[in-house]
């Protein structure tokens, strides 16, 4: 029975990874950077937080590599052999990313993310949608049109998310495949959170959100 479940889960993960690769969604960060750089009106919210955010990111990553890379690589050497160095590096980067997301969203960039997200929607002429979550002023500059927030969606990191992350960590002890599975599962969990604001503005209930996420599960994982 356990073997059948394992095979079924492995097959599902294989299809999910394939769908994620075909979706091309992993290119959106690059496309997002290009869009951001070509629209100067969007620069103000994030650039005002740029220095402390970059300092936080570099500090966390440096700290994690200095104090946790070698111990984790030593442990992984027993299971991953010569690939332990690569697996440990990927794990440290994932851990650093999780800590960075937790701290930056909690203390630095929450409001800037909301303003930028809404500003992009306004630049796409979706005023009616944005007005579901905040007051919208008249004008041509999308950022200048942003008024007072009516709804603020981004949730802080929850204990459940931390526990789930810790539960997935042992997967990294499986040579090569384990680290890949760990990264995919993190993408599967974190992907839909990027659209929390969108779901709120659409006024979708949990069933509608789940249906949409399931329909584009591969893309969200990517």
Note the main attributes of this structure:
222 residues; mainly alpha; two-stranded antiparallel ribbon; 12 helices; 3% strand
pLDDT below 50 for ≥5 consecutive residues: which ranges?
A: none
End-to-end span in angstroms?
30 Å
Q: If you average the pLDDT, what whole number results? A: 83
Strand order of the largest sheet: 1-2
Helix content: 55-70%
Residues in β-strands, percent: under 5%
Question: Helical segment tally?
Answer: 12
- Number of E-type strands: 2
Write down the secondary-structure element order.
HHHHHHHEEHHHHH
- What is the overall shape? globular
**Biggest sheet features:** 2 strands, antiparallel
Describe the fold and architecture.
The mean pLDDT is 83. Helix 4 packs antiparallel against helix 5 (84-107). The chain has helices spanning 2-23, 28-37, 44-47, 50-80, 84-107, 110-123, 127-130, 159-168, 177-190, 196-202, 206-215, 217-221; strands spanning 134-136, 146-149. The protein has 222 residues and is mainly alpha-helical. The chain is globular and about 60 Å long. It has a two-stranded antiparallel ribbon with strand order 1-2.
Structure summarized in a few sentences:
With 222 residues, the chain is mainly alpha-helical. It has helices spanning 2-23, 28-37, 44-47, 50-80, 84-107, 110-123, 127-130, 159-168, 177-190, 196-202, 206-215, 217-221; strands at 134-136, 146-149.
